[in-house]
Design goal:
Largest sheet: 7 strands, parallel
Bound molecules: NADP nicotinamide-adenine-dinucleotide phosphate
Number of domains: 1
CATH architecture: 3-Layer(aba) Sandwich
Number of helices: 8
Distance between the termini: 7 Å
Shape: globular
Length: 245
């Protein structure tokens, strides 16, 4: 299996909303290894500080953190304007925003949880897409990260499934509206081995392997407007073989 150690993305600016998260950390590391400047926004300075430590001094020089939210259209617009002005370009965006929640049937779900798990996360994805897609460089790409529950109903985590489904449709709509002007893709992940869940089935991908796939998707012109399904390491190998990686 190849690793994105070649500096295929030297000089590129990649924005990773959700880069502080369990999966986002692996995405950030892979783009840094590929030579990109990686910009990570977060609502929390302490989570940004933690990310810099996790990435380590060898790679962190090109990791740029921005303590700013993107929970509303206005916040995302301000963030995109600031990043484009400060770094001069935005080549790729990989949005790994939103986490897991489970435990209640739909009819038991409180409005508070609905707002947090569905509304806030869906609004952030929409706000990011509408602010960053128009600013992508011509050969740039936008990738959104989703879970298996976005594509099939997951009992007792229904509102995560519903948000993921909305996110996948958002990506399809973007593809239909952009008509090839920019590449937009999504990765649909199975369970991921990560810093919060360091063990798991050997067929599961690690967060670093998700990052490897995200680098390939961003840097391969023929991958456009696709659902890239990555349930297992076998799926990753097949996806990398397609790109000659
Ligand atoms: N972990 C897995 O096993 C797994 C499996 C399949 C798919 N996925 C997918 O991977 C993506 C990231 O999951 P994760 O496990 O990395 O989650 P996580 O560790 O909880 O991280 C969530 C990230 O989203 C950001 N975020 C921004 N606005 C948010 C909001 N309103 N609510 C929640 N988070 C918000 C957080 O940034 P701040 O720094 O601002 O908090 C954080 O960086 C999700 O799309 C998830 O469905 C994960």
């Amino acid at each position: 299996m190849s690793t994105p150690t070649a500096h295929t993305l030297d000089g590129k600016v990649v924005v990773v909303p959700g880069g502080t998260g369990n999966v986002g950390e692996g995405i950030v590391r892979a783009f840094l290894k590929a030579g990109a400047t990686v910009v990570v926004p977060s609502r929390s300075q302490s989570r940004l500080d933690q990310l810099v430590k996790l990435i380590g001094p060898e790679l962190a020089a090109e990791l740029k953190t921005v303590a700013a939210a993107y929970a509303s259209f206005d916040e995302a617009d301000k963030l995109a304007t600031k990043i484009a002005a400060e770094f001069g370009r935005v080549d790729h965006v990989v949005a790994s925003v939103g986490g897991w929640w489970a435990g209640k049937a739909l009819w038991q779900t409180s409005e508070e949880v609905w707002e947090k798990v569905f509304v806030d996360v869906a609004t952030s994805h929409m706000a990011l897409a509408r602010s960053f897609v128009p600013r992508l460089s011509e050969d740039g790409s936008y990738t959104t990260i989703a879970g298996f529950s976005a594509a099939k109903p997951y009992p007792a985590a229904g509102i995560v499934s519903m948000q993921g489904a909305a996110q996948l449709m958002m990506r399809e709509i973007l593809s239909a509206e952009l008509k090839g002007q920019r590449r937009v893709n999504d990765l649909i992940l199975g369970p991921i081995i990560n810093r919060s869940r360091p063990g798991g089935d050997p067929s599961w991908l690690t967060a670093d392997q998700v990052g490897e796939a995200a680098v390939k998707v961003a840097s391969t012109p023929s991958i456009a407007n696709e659902h890239v399904i990555l349930d297992t390491v076998d799926d990753l190998d097949k996806a990398l073989a397609r790109t000659g990686g």
